[in-house]
Design goal:
Layout (H helix, E strand, L loop, with lengths): L15 H52 L14 E3 L2 E3 L7 H4 L6 H7 L39 E4 L40 E5 L14 E3 L13 H11 L7 E2 L10 H4 L1 E2 L11 E3 L12 E2 L9 E6 L4 E5 L4 H8 L9
Parallel strand pairs: 3-7, 5-8
Antiparallel strand pairs: 1-2, 3-4, 4-10, 5-6, 8-9, 10-11
Length: 341
């Protein structure tokens, strides 16, 4: 009997269509897995950020218990300085973060930078700044920010543009935050520690490109307006004019030093809501004077949808970019009580 050789043939392998379909399924599964890995990593980074903010609040409580006062978050020529052996020691333009160093395990470093005056704030690099003030400290760094120096974490200077009580300021614009160029006690906060922000985060200036979420516009407002004229409406109007485009003058060092004071380095405010499509503004007379205590510097982050914010009671909350503006203002003020879901 003759049997065709084809009658016992068994096809092995895939057709081209089957191969393409299999590759498409594998690619889809890999993309789903990759998205899951990215999300898991961001969850871990956000958790680390939360823990570091909580450390800062706990250190603040320890400082207040030891000194009977909250750390002064910024100093300038007109701000108070500290007494050392009965003499006034200059602490110009220094931040409050170095004051917390002894309560974060860096006692020796705190002593080494205590009387270092901030230098190089108007340059394009950090090289002119004292080396000790540029030491990398992980407790000041959010893992979601690829710029690996300086500080992401800033003191809340209030919901008004200025944190210095200029003469002639109307009551509605007087400093109302827990930190700034003034000294307060926790017990003196009428709004209570559970309804007042202590710290939030802000992206640090990247090199080589402008980012409105990180750089700070050094607008010459002090040469044009009186302190009483620099209010929420004016700052929003000016910021809307610039938008996210690169302004003519801005500091390339925003956030790149944890020892520097003012809104350039270590203060944020509740004038704008988090992550706005607006530039931050420091109302100094030039980029060289960005430590001026007036402006609008909102928190920003790479966390999708919002920012981590530490409350004075030690809790840390994730504040959505869509937070109600009035609720956000109240959270920044010691005189108000805010309820944030």
């Amino acid at each position: 009997m003759h049997t065709s050789c084809e009658s016992g043939y068994r096809r092995v392998g895939f057709t081209l269509i089957e191969l393409v379909a299999a590759l498409a399924i594998v690619a889809t599964l890999m993309s789903i897995m990759l998205v899951g890995i990215v999300k898991a990593r961001e969850v871990a980074r956000r958790a680390d950020c939360t823990n570091r903010l909580r450390q800062l609040v706990l250190a603040t409580h320890q400082f207040e218990a030891a000194r009977q006062i909250l750390p002064q978050a910024s100093t300038n020529d007109e701000g108070p300085s500290e007494l050392v052996n009965g003499q006034r020691a200059s602490l110009l333009h220094s931040s409050g973060l170095w004051r917390l160093l002894p309560y974060l395990g860096h006692e020796r470093l705190a002593d080494e930078v205590k009387y270092v005056q901030m230098q190089g704030g108007g340059s394009d690099t950090t090289e002119q700044m004292p080396r000790k003030t540029r030491i990398r400290l992980s407790v000041f760094l959010c893992p979601s920010d690829p710029v690996d120096e300086g500080t992401n974490y800033r003191f809340n200077s209030g919901s008004n543009p200025t944190c210095f009580d200029y003469s002639g300021l109307p009551e509605s614009l007087r400093p109302n935050g827990p930190f700034g160029l003034f000294l307060k006690r926790l017990s003196a906060i009428p709004g209570g520690t559970s309804g007042t922000a202590a710290f939030s985060e802000r992206l640090k200036a990247p090199s080589g490109r402008y980012d409105h979420r990180a750089h700070i516009w050094g607008a010459s407002l002090n040469n044009t307006f009186s302190p009483a004229e620099i209010d929420h409406r004016l700052l929003r109007l000016l910021a809307n004019e610039v938008g996210t485009s690169e302004p003519p003058t801005y500091s390339r060092l925003a956030g790149l030093n944890w020892h520097g004071g003012g809104k350039l380095f270590t203060l944020y405010d509740h004038v704008f809501t988090p992550n706005p499509p607006l530039p931050a503004i420091s109302a100094g007379s030039s980029v060289l004077h960005n430590w001026e205590p007036t402006g609008a510097v909102p928190p920003t982050s790479n966390h999708p949808g919002g920012v981590n914010t530490a409350i004075l009671d030690g809790s840390v909350r994730f504040i959505a970019d869509t937070v109600d503006a009035q609720v956000w203002e109240h959270l920044g003020s010691v005189a108000q009580t805010a309820q944030v879901d």
